[in-house]
Every structure is written in C-alpha cells, then in structure tokens.
Amino acid sequence: MSRVALVTGGTRGIGAAISVALKNAGRTVLANYAGNDAAAAAFHKETGIEVVKFDVASYEQCAEAVRQIEARHDKIEILVNNAGITRDAVLSKMSREMWDAVIDTNLGACFNLCKLTFDGMKAHKFGRIVNIGSINGQAGQYGQVNYAAAKSGIHGFTKALAQEGARFSITVNAVAPGYVDTDMVRAVPPDVLEKIIAKIPRGRLGTAEDIARSVVFLTADEADFITGSTLSINGGQHMY
Ligand code: CAA
Known about the structure:
Largest sheet: 7 strands, parallel
Number of strands: 7
Radius of gyration: 17 Å
Bound molecules: acetoacetyl-coenzyme A
CATH architecture: 3-Layer(aba) Sandwich
C-alpha cells in the first residue's frame, strides 16, 4: 500500500510542489491548507490531490484532522511541516501579535503535528518527517526576528526529535530553502528583493521544484540513514 504523506501548506507555493512531487513518487498525499479555499479547490482540480483544511497553529484542529485522515487512510508515515507565514517588521515596529502568529504557525505547528503522528510512526517502526526551515533561520534577516527565531527553532527541534526517532526507523530532517519564487518572496519590496537576488551566487531565485526534489529524496524508504540533517538549498547564498 502506498505510504500516506501529509504536507502542511500543501496547496500553494513550495508546499504545492512538494505535494505533487510526492504524489509522482507514488505516495498518497493529503495537502493541508488554512484558508484559501479557491486556491485549494483549483489545486485539487488540477492534481487530484486530496486537500484538508485546518489551522496548523491550533492543536485541537490538528488533532481532529489527524484523526479524520487516519480514519480514512492508513497511518500518516510521511509528514512535511511546510506551512509558514511572515509578518516582517523591524523589532521596534513588531507587535506581540506579529511575534505570536509567526511562532505559533511556523514552529508551534511542528510540535502539534509531530506530537500527533509520532506515536503512530513508532508503532509502525517507520516514519519520515521533513521540517521546512529557512536560510533566514540559519543566517538571520533584517526585519524578521519572529520568522528567524521560528525557523531557527525548527532546526533545533529537528535535531532533537531525530535522536528520539532513530531507534524506531523514524528519520527527522530539515530543508532550509533560500529565496524561492513564491508569493511570500514576491511580497518583499522590489528594491529589497533586487538586493537579495544580487547576493545569490547562482544568480536567480530558487524554484519550488528545487525544494520539492529534496523532500522526495529525504522521505524515500532508502533514506533510512539520513537523520538530523539540514539540507540547505539556496543557490549558494549561505553556505552552512
Ligand atoms: N541591513 C541593514 N539595514 C537595512 C536592511 C538590511 N538588510 N534593510 C533595510 N535597512 C535599513 C534601510 O536602509 C533603512 O535605513 P534608513 O532609515 O537609514 O534609510 C531602514 O533600515 C528602514 O528600512 P525600511 O525603509 O525598509 O523599513 P520598513 O520599516 O519600511 O521595512 C522591512 C522594514 C519590513 C523589514 C522591509 O525592509 C522588508 O520587507 N525587508 C525584507 C525582509 C525579508 O527579506 N523577508 C523575507 C521574506 S521571504 C521569506 O522569509 C522566505 C524565506 O524563508 C527566505
């Protein structure tokens, strides 16, 4: 039976490319989304991938979603924590709400969904978790103390959980994308983005597919010996 994969934020941007790549690799994919019904419906129509709506920042909604998915399918054996938001501002202009929203959605969600799927993976003695970090969690970024803290947290979370999962054949890895051509990056002011692209040795933004291929690689059954690692995919912008 094909392994069941849950991809959060899986109907748009990097997440959509990951969902499609995992489907093409023979997985049964569930693509989560939070609010954009139109985009999710269009994604489903185009790809045939099942979409599931819930807020990854809410433990209760995650618990209900996992329960429903596992009732309809097999256990979730592949989890890709990709959903993420930005609320960029310099610290002096950043509100507590901007901080909480980014920490809860980008990092809290990792806790929620790993916690809710980990015991099932342990029981099956198989699991593949990929957490999507960021170059900005590795290097920091002006105007992003919230996002950098959340993404940096993901990198630590990954290494800690990898140690807990290893003896159950559960691998936990992170992918750290650089600047990828998505709506999130297109929201950066054009003059700022231009300066960022000028610092990418490869000379271009990444594509969502550049990231998706690494997730297929890390979630393969054969990737059993890769755990606790961070794969940086950033066109050479930050060599870490
Ligand atoms: N380093 C040092 N100084 C900087 C700077 C930098 N990187 N960027 C801006 N500044 C300076 C400006 O030159 C300006 O100085 P002056 O007042 O002396 O002119 C001052 O800081 C204020 O800059 P802004 O006018 O831009 O300030 P703002 O409050 O209007 O906006 C900001 C601040 C929201 C952070 C805006 O600069 C911004 O959006 N920056 C981009 C942040 C970014 O890269 N986000 C990534 C989003 S994509 C993503 O996160 C995906 C991923 O994983 C990679």
